[in-house]
Amino acid sequence: MIYPHGDIEPIGTDIFMVRGSIKLNPFMRISRNMGIVCEESEITLINPIRLNAGTEDKLRALGEIKNIVRLGAFHGIDDAYYVEKFKAQFWSQPNGMAYKEPIIDVEIGMGGLTPVEDCEFFEFRNTTQPECALLLKRDGGILFTCDSIQHYGDYSYSNWLAKVIMPRIGFPKTTIVGPIWLKLMTPEGGGLEEEFRRLLELNFDKLLSGHGTFLAHDAFKEVTKAIDKAFSVDSLD
Questions:
Q1: Is 130 exposed, middle or buried, given 0-12, 13-18 or 19+ CB atoms closer than 10 A?
Q2: CA dist 95 to 15, 72, 90, 100, Å?
Q3: DSSP category for residue 237
Q4: Closest to 5 measured CA to CA, from 33, 25, 28, 26
Q5: Is domain 8-236 classified as CATH 3.60.15.10?
Q6: Rg (CA), the chain
Q7: Using CA atoms, how far apart are residues 85 and 198, in angstroms rounded to an integer?
Q8: Can you say whether residue 141 is alpha, beta or left, with left for phi > 0 and alpha for psi between -120 and 50 degrees?
Q9: Where do the structural domains in the chain lie, given as residue ranges?
Q10: DSSP character at residue 87
Q11: What is the mean pLDDT of the chain?
Q12: Inter-residue contact 208 to 33 (CB < 8 Å)
């Protein structure tokens, strides 16, 4: 199904995004984002979302859709569409429970393979389901995440009910560790703070998360603040 979305927007050197949306339930629609990375004549889609015919034509004009990358186990509703229609390679971590299709062509982390040359994957360890991030080493570093780290500059592409509820359930207009994600992904009796501290060993200045808005500057500082807040003593009480 195609949900409301915007146009293809440039966010870096041969890097683009589309801001779109997804229906969580009959009452709430929230934002979601797709990253588009071009390398020569090939395109890699990160956290894919379906597009209307006109915008899809613009996407195809950028090059051949070669790679589909799923970063989070809770995303994947539109992956099969691109894999089937464009015969693209599907990149994912195994053992996600929400979406069992399409069949994985390249397991993320296997042999250090990456969909484009100037990038690397970051894999969370010890989460209850697989989750990763992708660092693109262009323009000071662009970090692509799914649900783990999110940034909200506004609530556009969310419906009125979501705009009212989101700041009340842990999604204020700032950079955050996804609170629902953190609850679902933290193993019983365990913790994920060390994983997020390890994430801060990466160098990046920009952030495009699976939900919210693009953070064009100072992303490392804002992500650091979000991690400090998520794992402060007060937040864990």
A1: buried
A2: 29, 11, 14, 8
A3: -
A4: 33
A5: yes
A6: 17
A7: 37
A8: left
A9: 8-236
A10: -
A11: 95
A12: yes
